[in-house]
Automatic annotation (TrEMBL):
InterPro entries: MFS, MFS_dom, MFS_trans_sf, Sugar_P_transporter
Keywords: Membrane, Sugar transport, Transmembrane, Transmembrane helix, Transport
A single GO BP: phosphate ion homeostasis
Annotated source species: Urochloa decumbens
Family: Belongs to the major facilitator superfamily. Organophosphate:Pi antiporter (OPA) (TC 2.A.1.4) family.
Protein name per Swiss-Prot or TrEMBL: Major facilitator superfamily (MFS) profile domain-containing protein
TM region(s), chain numbering: 26-45, 90-109, 121-142, 148-177, 189-208, 214-234, 279-302, 322-341, 353-372, 378-399, 420-444, 450-469
Amino acid sequence: MAQSHDMMSRRPPGLRLFGRSGSLRTYQTLVLVLTFFAYTCFHMTRKITSIVKSALDPQTKVGFSHWGRLHTSNTLNIGWLPFNTVDGSALLGEIDVAFLAVYSAGMFFAGHIGDRMDLRIFLTIGMLGTAIFTTLFGAGYWMNVHNFYYFLVIQMISGLFQSIGWPSVVAVVGNWFGKSKRGLIMGIWNAHTSIGNIAGSLLAAFLLKFGWGWSFAVPSLIMAFVGLIVYIFLPVNPKAMEIDIDSGEFNCVKDTVKDPLLEPGQEVKHKAVGFLEAWRIPGVAPFALCLFFSKLVAYTFLYWLPFYISHTRIGGEYLSDAMAGSLSTIFDVGGVLGGVLAGHISDRLNARAITAASFMYCAIPALFLYRTYGSMSIVWNICLMFITGMFVNGPYALITTAVSADLGTHSSLNGNSRALATVTAIIDGTGSVGAAIGPLLTGYISSKSWSAVFTMLMAAALLAGLLLTKLVCAELKGKVHSDATKDATDAQGTYSNEV
């Protein structure tokens, strides 16, 4: 009775009212929808600052600088102090770097904590915290705040709460879905990243005419509302709902529970995995380092693509900043397809490393062609940008979703599934370091040569692929051995029939 009461207490309050009325498919659908909208909100609020920069500093061109640049008093007649100064773009760049630095560092701690507490509560904390501090950034508009360090500190704390989101949603989805179609499901589900970017851009741009503070406040209110819905309705795992994921039926579990992601019948006690132990899981380090370079490429496009387009003559003329920003969303559209394709292919081949490495190698010629021929016309630019986004974001989406979930339930853990958030945090946290370094380097290199920037991106894509070489060889060797075993079995069956 005590055990049953403990399980009921971990049910979301909104689902306790329905008792045992839900089916496995119903809960899986609910998990996908709620986590999809939850992480859409994270990216929606993350995108706001890049849109509002034009209102804070009308002269800004999304750049980065050394830390500690002194402020000047040579202000302009429009914009918002201290950002409408000669150093305005540098200060905004420092805020970007600070956000990404805290976000990547916080990711490691977030995963460690997430495996040790209720992920529904932890995710809600991340969403409400992000909403509060995003609102406080915008509140500077109404409170007439002009202190740079106010905005810097607010954005850093926001980055800390943002780091809770990804390990939490991947762990929850991983708990509910087996490995057979996980790549395809998560590839489709991962579209929330691009949809959040697009929604954040459109909403923030629309609200700018009412005052830049509203561009922060309204998306934050939306995120807070979704966070409350998550708290009320999100089922974290089948155990909390007393469901046997293998049969889809209700299963009252006593002291142990079947791991939904490992072999049927394997019993496991829930004990969180340590940080160093998670690093030692086979495949975690190579995929984490691969994501470092993959995310370096992806986030360089995220921060610099609109700037690059507006400063490149396309079809003989330059596009406006607004047109360049709209055109850059094609990269995200290509990324959605890339994520779905990478997930589906890796499922069919049962080869995550081969798929991820192949996409990264294909990204190299795609980057070269976009730099070389993207300026010929708008049509060429759109087509090549779409292809580049597909190959760049495909492995990025695959590694941060299906691969993280696979490694979080690796056989070396002996059935312990409570490493999902930690492994996800290690992989994406390492990748986020690359996400901070890529745009930072681009800020310096682009002032001399955009060709050098693309050379850097192609080198990063090559390194990302090479880092998976050992895992690719292991997967190929496994497939050869599997095919040989199958042929031997078929031959033995044929011989038996003839006898």
